[in-house]
Structure formats: C-alpha cells, structure tokens
Amino acid sequence: MSESHRPGPGVPTDQVGTVLVTGGSSGLGAAVVAAVDKAGGVPVVLDLHPPTGEIDHEIVDLADSRSAEQATQRIVDRHPDLAAVVTAAGIDACGRLEEVPGPSWDRVIAVNLGGTAAVVRAALPALTGNRGRIVTVASTLGLRALSDATAYCASKFGVVGFSRALSAELAGSVGVTLLIPGGMQTAFFDGRPEQYKPGPDAQLADPSDIAAAALFALTQPDGCAIRELVVTPPAEPSWP
What we know:
The protein is of the alpha/beta class. It has helices at residues 27-38, 65-78, 102-129, 150-169, 207-218; strands at 18-22, 42-47, 57-59, 82-87, 133-137, 175-181, 228-231. The protein has a single domain (3-231), classed as 3-Layer(aba) Sandwich (Rossmann fold), CATH 3.40.50.720. Helix 1 (27-38) packs across helix 5 and helix 3 runs parallel beside helix 4. The longest helix has 28 residues, at 102-129.
C-alpha cells in the first residue's frame, strides 16, 4: 500500500495490502497467508515449497541469504506496492550440542535468523517508501532457554535482539512488531524423537489464532506501533 493510499492518523487501516510471508506454504506462514487473503490483502510467499492455490511465490532456500535477498527483490519488482513482511519461516534441530551435527545446527541459525534479516534487508527500500510494516516471528524460547535447544534458542534470541534493534533503527518510517508465539498445532514437531515432541496433554495454539495476532499488528492505524506481542495458550509451559 503506497503512502498516498494509507489512512491518516487515528483512522483504522481497512486495507492489508501486499504482504510477503516467509515459510508461507505451511504452518504459521500458511495461516498468515490465509488471514491476509481473507482480509482482502495480497499474500506473496517465499518458501522451499510452493503454496497451495494461485498465490504468487518464489521458491528459495532461506538458509542462503543472498538467494533470499534476490528472491525478495524479484517479489518487490512484481509488487512495488509491498506493504508488509511477515517472517514466519522456522526450523529446529533438537539435541544436546555435541549430538547435533554442525551443518544441522548452522542451518537453524541460517534460516531462522539469517533468512529473517536477509528478507527484511531486501524488502526495506520498498517498505520505507510505502510506510510499511514488518512482523518478525520469534518464540517463547527466544526469551527462555531450554536444554537440548541451543540452535533454536540461539536463533530466536537473535531474532528478538534483531527485531528490537530494528525497531529503534526504523522508528517513524517502518513499523516493526516482534511476535512471540508459544507452541502451535503444526507439523513443526513431526519427525522428532518422542522426547522432543509435546506430550499428550500439551495445549498448543491454533496457528490461525497466532496469524490473527500478526494481522492485528499489520492493520494498526498510522501513529500506533505494536512493538511486541506474546501469544500463547493459557497453560503454555514455556511462558513465563
């Protein structure tokens, strides 16, 4: 959404505009895509796999920062009205530090933190020109450290620090919201050893509820900045 089409201060934003979603083919990313589409916006996806439906997208490995930047630029070239970026892509590699292969550990950092920064960096000129917004997705494990999660915690603690610094850097030009979800009902936990899966009584959030929080941040009026949102089930064990 260009600046000329954004509502003035104090007027609720009733248009979502074009929103770039990383990891938009599954999990939370897919839920954000659905929420943007339902709200009348135009979702665009960066992912290793194509999204369902007729959604503009680029296939890219977000662990490769330069490729992520180039894919983002191609999106911007097709959508110069880019209004927002939501960085929902995320992976994990569970296990004690000495047990997790180095390449697997490194990839978690590259996707979760490096991919977030690369996409935001490439989209920033368009977002600045359009007075856009950014929603970065961290985790409750970006605030609380757990054993056997060094890669994930390091990456999400990094996203927290990156987002807070970016918010200060872009104050007054691009809105930055740090979204901190707890565990969700997605395929994120599939394929893990049983010890690293949620227990049978675990309360996990519906990703559509977390996506609604992202949409809430994206649709605030000019002059209102949602800095951080923590969204979890009431009995989330990793919060506070």
